[in-house]
Amino acid sequence: MTETHTVGITGAAGYIGSRVTKNLLESGHEVVPVDNFHAAKVEAIDGTEVLDGDVRDRDTIAEQFGDVDILFHLAALTGVEECDEHVDEAFEVNVRGTENVARFCRSSGTPLVFPCSMAILGEPVDLPISSDHPRDPVNTYGLTKRLSEDDIHVLAKHSFPAHVYMKSNLYGHHEVGGQTVGKRTVINIFVEKALNDETLTVHEPGTQARDFVHVKDVARAYEQSMDFLLGENDDGARTLPLASGEDMSVLDLANLVQRVTRKERGYEPEIELIENPRGEEAAGSDFSVDTDEARDAIGFEAEHSVEETVRDLLSEAE
């Protein structure tokens, strides 16, 4: 890629947003990074200050992103527990905020990339999971993302091109300015507990499967979408499953962390099944995803594996 662009990013100080911003800056793009710092991981990225802004404010969106070539909308209230505890805020940020962004893109014709999460599906019923899978979210977070997916598809029609990522479960860490950036996703939590020789607690039944994709792989996808959308003349939104194809149960994941810990650290953390505090949760034992859609559309393929990442995290820790 030789052409550079001006890229707007909401949620730029977060777990994924900071990595996306870093990648783009390293590739020579001009970036307009914005965050309301609710769950910020950083304040600046490679010398570029993250601007204060909130997607719930339509005027701010227009002012800060008026000159961008493409917009990556990553700002959200994330996590099942946080959304269930703050339902009104979840709808304000995730639904109204996304609608504000999409309305700006509609009025300006600005291409958009937005992650809506596999949480929009609920319990998988058609395997492998594709973009056409029925939507039946089982929690507030999934519902807000489902509504946002609809909004973008409706508003993008005949107005702007968009990619909507049906993103699977994230894991891994990355570095920004010498600072390690991570999030309490299940793999990261298991590794942290293993390093402290603490019990790996698995929510019952333990057989619930997920596809796991590294944060660095997801960040790369944004640049791949950008190259496609800025060269695309057709308006309208397309939803793409964004996954590694590496699915396993939570109990299998705990067993993997236990085994690698024994090899790399010389001890073996215990594993304990506990009652699931979330109540309703997709608990199927198969979460296979059709990765051909993203590969064919934007050339996306995962480069990181769970076992390799777990081994690196455990072996490199002091």
User: What structural category characterises the helix and strand content?
Assistant: alpha/beta
State the low-pLDDT regions, or none: none
Mean of residue pLDDT values:
95
- CATH superfamily (homologous) name of the largest domain: NAD(P)-binding Rossmann-like Domain
Terminal residue distance: 38 Å
Element pattern in H and E: EHEEEEHEHHEHEEEEHEEHEEHEHH
Q: Count of helices? A: 10
List how many beta strands DSSP finds. 16
A few lines on this structure:
The chain is α/β, with parallel strands linked by helices and 318 residues long. It is built from ten helices and 16 strands. It has two domains: 6-167 and 215-243 and 290-302, NAD(P)-binding Rossmann-like Domain (Rossmann fold); 174-208 and 246-286 and 309-316, UDP-galactose 4-epimerase, domain 1 (Alpha-Beta Complex), CATH 3.90.25.
